[in-house]
Amino acid sequence: xxxxxxxxxxxxxxxxxxxxxxxxxxxxxxxxxxxxxxxxxxxxxxxxxxxxxxxxxxxxxxxxxxxxxxxxxxxxxxxxxxxxxxxxxxxxxxxxxxxxxxxxxxxxxxxxxxxxxxxxxxxxxxxxxxxxxxxxxxxxxxxxxxxxxxxxxxxxxxxxxxxxxxxxxxxxxxxxxxxxxxxxxxxxxxxxxxxxxxxxxxxxxxxxxxxxxxxxxxxxxxxxxxxxxxxxxxxxxxxxxxxxxxxxxxxxxxxxxxxxxxxxxxxxxxxxxxxxxxxxxxxxxxxxxxxxxxxxxxxxxxxxxxxxxxxxxxxxxxxxxxxxxxxxxxxxxxxxxxxxxxxxxxxxxxxxxxxxxxxxxxxxxxxxxxxxxxxxxxxxxxxxxxxxxxxxxxxxxxxxxxxxxxxxxxxxxxxxxxxxxxxxxxxxxxxxxxxxxxxxxxxxxxxxxxxxxxxxxxxxxxxxxxxxxxx
Length: 471
Hints:
Blueprint: E1 2-4, E2 12-13, E3 18-19, E4 22-23, H1 28-42, H2 45-55, H3 63-73, E5 76-84, E6 88-95, E7 101-108, E8 116-124, H4 137-153, E9 159-165, E10 168-175, E11 177-179, E12 184-185, E13 192-193, H5 198-211, H6 231-236, H7 239-244, H8 255-260, H9 267-274, H10 291-305, H11 309-321, E14 342-343, E15 351-352, E16 368-369, H12 371-382, H13 389-396, E17 400-401, E18 407-408, E19 413-417, E20 420-429, E21 432-439, E22 444-450, H14 456-465
């Protein structure tokens, strides 16, 4: 089973031939589809592995990962059969624990016993034919609290949530423990690691320097990083490319990162490790998420401003916005109220994520913040405290289509959620997940942080933004 586009777990409620709102055709592919969903939905490891060994042997060794996926989503309901032939089944599914939709494609052999050739899942935006109701303000708060209580009791959420309307909190809650060994509860003051959400701060800093006339968005990287090892990249990749993930600069995670995880202590260390790599594709030709591209933006900020990346963001983003609990201090330094992250990744029960953490956060991600600070950041953007109106709009307006159905701006996702435009960014890694959504026409800001694996926070954020009042 291949899972794509951010879906992290799977289960289905299905008993052929009628499953939820759909009917599975009585074809070889349809019967195999129904049988797979039924055994997968049961969550019985022995039965599921036996099914795979008989029908999809190439995937039998990944049975545990698939069942972990099942546990996280709470399963899928069949919503619609999109296409069906004797050898292929395409269906729309919805996670039971969230609003997330997926497209499942199953192919089988033409001859008996019709073994499965491929089973792919792709996360997709919610189709318009399955709209969710817009709630009133009071209904939204009551519904969100009910969802949070359910997920917290089920162990699917531990963290904090803040919903603000026109800049003022209308819901602010904390759930679960920030440190299980010491039985310390999460509070609104708890600092959570935020993963890639740091990209919003990096992009804001970059646009500040552009607004001040200190750098040009169409300038090549080599204009500022004059000694960059790969001269081809330095000449072709622009600041715009880096901000929009269209530069072909690649990622940082993988075997090299794992081998040097605690040695990478500065942005220059990352450039020394990855700076000689060739481009993955011609800059500007496609969109591909690049953490390394935002490492390079941090290096450019340092060159142009004359400050370290961390000092610049502290002085020009955090301080003006009133964000007193955000930063990227090294993991070996004590930071008050910083939560312990808990992960299942790597197998076994939930355990601290300490063995996965970098030395410190970077311009690509890995810092920490609170939901209160994130709302302060959103308010400062909307009040033009950090950027003037022109550059704030430039920062948050989508420019490049992304696979998830939205558009990527400069360090922000820009998408329409159930008819309402929202922009923001999420972050996720083992034992950490977060999302900030700013929905200006509706007047709402939603900030959710969790010290659990993705999609703990994202699913809560989506649940809320999907149901915002229209006015």
